[in-house]
Amino acid sequence: MIGNSLEAGHSYHHLGSAGRNVFYWLTRIKLPKIIIIILILLCIVPLFTHYYLLKVETDLSNMDIHQTRSRLEGFHDFTSMRAADLKARIEEMLRIKQSVSNELRDLEAKRRKLHADVNSLTQQIDELKQELLHQQMDLDRLKISVVQAQAAQREAVERNTPELAPPKRILSNFTPDMLPAHLNSQLCRMFNCFDHSRCALTSGFPVYLYDPEEFSVVNEDWDIDGFLKTYIKHTLRYNSHLTFDPAEACIYIVLIGEALAISHKTGDSGTALDIKKLQMLPYWGGDGRNHVLLNLARRDLSTNSGNLFNGIDTGRAIIIQSTFLRQHFRENFDLIVPPILGPPGGDVWPECAHMLPARRKFLLSFQGEMRALKSSTNHQIVDDAELDIDRVSLDENNLDNFIIQHLKDMSNGITLDKFFIQFECIPTSEEKKVNEVLDWSLCGTDSSRKAILKESTFALILAPSNASFLSTASIQARLYESLRSGAIPVILGGDSIALSFKEVIAWRRAVIFLPKARVTEMHFLLRAVPDNDLLAMRRQGRLIWDRYFGTAQSVVDTIIAVLRDRLGIPPLPASQSPSPSIFNSSFVPLRSDTIAAESEAEESLGPLEPPYPSPAFRRNYTIMLVQGYEMWNDWIDPFKLYPQLPFDTILPSDAKFLGSEVGFRPIGKGAGGAGKEFSESLGGNYQREQFTIVMLTYEREQVLINSLARLYGLPYLNKVIVVWNSPKPPMEDLRWPDIGVPIHVIKAKRNSLNNRFLPFDAIETEAVLSVDDDAHLRHDEIMFGFRVWREHRDRVVGFPGRFHAWDQNNHNAWNYNSNYSCELSMVLTGAAFIHKHYTYLYSHWLPQAIRDKVDEYMNCEDIAMNFLIAHITRKPPVKVTSRWTFRCPGCPVSLSEDDTHFQERHKCINFFSQVFGYMPLLNTQYRADSILFKTRIPHDKQKCFKFI
Ligand SMILES: *[C@@H]1O[C@H](CO)[C@@H](O)[C@H](O)[C@H]1NC(C)=O
Ligand SMILES: *[C@@H]1O[C@H](CO)[C@@H](O)[C@H](O)[C@H]1NC(C)=O
Ligand SMILES: *[C@@H]1O[C@H](CO)[C@@H](O)[C@H](O)[C@H]1NC(C)=O
Ligand SMILES: *[C@@H]1O[C@H](CO)[C@@H](O)[C@H](O)[C@H]1NC(C)=O
């Protein structure tokens, strides 16, 4: 961030530049006594001499005058006689005076020279002392570096676990064999119907899609919805599991989609699916092993699609659709999915309602109608004129009748709560399709329902009257709509139905399930939900909707991910951004000869080690087991495998002494200790590691070079990455400092602040220190920040604090604030540690609108990162040490520029909270200082850090 004068703050303690002043050292340093005595003598002797000589001179001249006077008294007698004598005497006296003053001048010169000598010697002594100090420091560092290196070597030698080769991929024949024993397909489960040999753990889960144009499996007078055909094909292409080689595929997807009759021929066959065509698919292999029949509903929410496979032997194929009869659904084999209601892809946040206030106008809303179609075998598109529906009146014993009556009474009863309950729809032209099964259909248009749902705290969903249904498309559609609008779904009859992707999604965190019999207690229960839980549920619902429901792409990706997850196959690795160097291969950048003018070696901060990248991809097969629920329901992404996560599990502290010691560097070998031992080892709860500095720069070469030079000798630094945002390459004669670690200068594609958070493949550590090119951080501050980050790996840990303040004048708005304050909610990434994982999320998960806003203003990327991390962790950032802000040396900022900068940041905060649907930032009231900071300790002990 460009600094600005309003943000001026503390400059940290100025450390005395000792040694240049003699008197400083005279008082500070115990020089040998002799030198002091000599010095004293040298100073004092000339003074005495001077005084003495002056005195003699005066005496002589006094005497002279006296004599002259007495002689003058007898002048008349002696005038002629004495004159010559007197003159001679005077001349002699003058001569003496002359020689004495010459001597005096010589002495003075000698004194001066000696004085200068003493000065220069003292200076030399000082310099040597400094040098000694540095050498001692370097020696100490080298010593601990050697110790560290030995430890690393010992570990390398002791690591006797051989690198296991991944198992050979199980390649079965091109066409699977026909299995002789024909199973009743209703008994199919993964263990007896699925061919695992096609899906090796290391295979990456290749998925083959039968082209729906080429391999149609529906009857001739039927056609698959064109939307689905193109879009599903398209979205699957974006899925990295898709393969075009059927021989290597683990599963084969057959797109059935929403089959529509294309002619008015009365097809009394009753089914769209052509079993013969299905069995003739080239890789069907006789029984449809590893085949997935994808029957996605779209417009026709409550069609017969549930019956599409009725009476058809689908063999061993897995069926995926929204409508299932209870007896047809094969647990953990078939899959219930939502209908495709969203756009193909892209940002969907504008569809969503803001999550606040917690309580909306209506406590509960419902819009629906119980319907049944007269002729249950008619699959034709029904013309408006022929709209042939029965509003079913239920018999008096029916539970649904009781429910309807109770809900009507409730909404008309004496209560302050408002309800929006509608049991009869006003027919609209949009409703062409009607329900064959006895079920609650949706009333009104999508937008009219949305308007009501946005004003509803809870949305009622009624399970179908016919309890044979485990799931219907209209239930899944209601769920979709409620989650989108932030109305918490309340499912009456929730114990009789199943929701989409229930294998992986923890639905009870977002939905209230009630047996129908609890209808009388429902109002009481809804009143009893406090605001914090209400908002937690709403947020969880939004998260599920965003990730798994919002677009066709997300539904298709989720389907593939659930099947993969079921098989225990890890996702494909998340793609990183390439890090092309700004220098071509033939160009060798010049090196600076002077090494780090400004030495930071005032205290030993840690060993200088060879580069040590953080171990990557160690939990490929366990993360889905140990943290599977978090992966699907908390953190962002079950679709990708990340090299490391900020949420990785932690070992108990005795493990590092009892068997799992590899990589640990306990302080004092586990015995603990104060500053000296502390500076020698990393300690903490995690294995040794290093960090990478990422610095964004734009046409400020000298500022950059100075910042780089200051990094010389920084312990635990793995690499420095400079993101060169300017289209102009660096000057060829620019001299790059040698700082002991590689400096990788990346050529950015374009000038964007979002480049700061690209997941560059050159970043090989989990810890990333993001710094502005002009930020001046001391080494001890960086070291302390790193150590604090190691304990808060999921958070922003850094130096400049800021906060979001409620705008008193303009309610419903936030202001960005950088004033001194005892509460903060952001730590600017101009100087902060973050986990590399968040760079993936920033670049690939964050809605595009946010990155666009950053580009539009050339500002706010740091705010966006704080939003992202606070949203995922629901935790505030961690501020370390006393620095509130940074001076920005050499960047003049005009007041007006400063004002626009702030105005933009106000706007960013408000826009971002609009996109997230709530304000994710959280406040914190404390900061981290080292443990012995300001503690009185015995003289033989060192503090953890001298100054922090
Ligand atoms: C429920 O639906 C199934 C399938 O459509 C049907 O066979 C059954 O008769 C229905 N039951 C009731 C009580 O309507
Ligand atoms: C490499 O870069 C240098 C300096 O930018 C330039 O002078 C030289 O022509 C380049 N060489 C090639 C092969 O592009
Ligand atoms: C884990 O997965 C990554 C990415 O696919 C791969 O590079 C790595 O070798 C795997 N590690 C193990 C131990 O299988
Ligand atoms: C600091 O606070 C004052 C009022 O106390 C306010 O006018 C000013 O805008 C604030 N500065 C910033 C940068 O927010």
UniProtKB/TrEMBL annotation:
<dbReference type="Pfam" id="PF03016">
    <property type="entry name" value="Exostosin_GT47"/>
</dbReference>
<dbReference type="InterPro" id="IPR004263">
    <property type="entry name" value="Exostosin"/>
</dbReference>
<keyword id="KW-0479">Metal-binding</keyword>
<dbReference type="InterPro" id="IPR040911">
    <property type="entry name" value="Exostosin_GT47"/>
</dbReference>
<keyword id="KW-1133">Transmembrane helix</keyword>
<keyword id="KW-0464">Manganese</keyword>
<keyword id="KW-0472">Membrane</keyword>
<dbReference type="InterPro" id="IPR029044">
    <property type="entry name" value="Nucleotide-diphossugar_trans"/>
</dbReference>
<keyword id="KW-0256">Endoplasmic reticulum</keyword>
<keyword id="KW-0175">Coiled coil</keyword>
<comment type="pathway">
    <text>Glycan metabolism; heparan sulfate biosynthesis.</text>
</comment>
<dbReference type="GO" id="GO:0005789">
    <property type="term" value="C:endoplasmic reticulum membrane"/>
</dbReference>
<keyword id="KW-0808">Transferase</keyword>
<dbReference type="GO" id="GO:0046872">
    <property type="term" value="F:metal ion binding"/>
</dbReference>
<dbReference type="GO" id="GO:0015012">
    <property type="term" value="P:heparan sulfate proteoglycan biosynthetic process"/>
</dbReference>
<comment type="similarity">
    <text>Belongs to the glycosyltransferase 47 family.</text>
</comment>
<feature type="transmembrane region" description="Helical">
    <location>
        <begin position="34"/>
        <end position="54"/>
    </location>
</feature>
<feature type="domain" description="Glycosyl transferase 64">
    <location>
        <begin position="691"/>
        <end position="933"/>
    </location>
</feature>
<dbReference type="Pfam" id="PF09258">
    <property type="entry name" value="Glyco_transf_64"/>
</dbReference>
<keyword id="KW-0812">Transmembrane</keyword>
<keyword id="KW-0328">Glycosyltransferase</keyword>
<feature type="coiled-coil region">
    <location>
        <begin position="83"/>
        <end position="145"/>
    </location>
</feature>
<protein>
    <recommendedName>
        <fullName>glucuronosyl-galactosyl-proteoglycan 4-alpha-N-acetylglucosaminyltransferase</fullName>
        <ecNumber>2.4.1.223</ecNumber>
    </recommendedName>
</protein>
<keyword id="KW-0735">Signal-anchor</keyword>
<dbReference type="InterPro" id="IPR015338">
    <property type="entry name" value="GT64_dom"/>
</dbReference>
<feature type="domain" description="Exostosin GT47">
    <location>
        <begin position="202"/>
        <end position="528"/>
    </location>
</feature>
<keyword id="KW-1015">Disulfide bond</keyword>
<dbReference type="GO" id="GO:0005794">
    <property type="term" value="C:Golgi apparatus"/>
</dbReference>
<keyword id="KW-0325">Glycoprotein</keyword>
<dbReference type="GO" id="GO:0001888">
    <property type="term" value="F:glucuronyl-galactosyl-proteoglycan 4-alpha-N-acetylglucosaminyltransferase activity"/>
</dbReference>
<keyword id="KW-0333">Golgi apparatus</keyword>
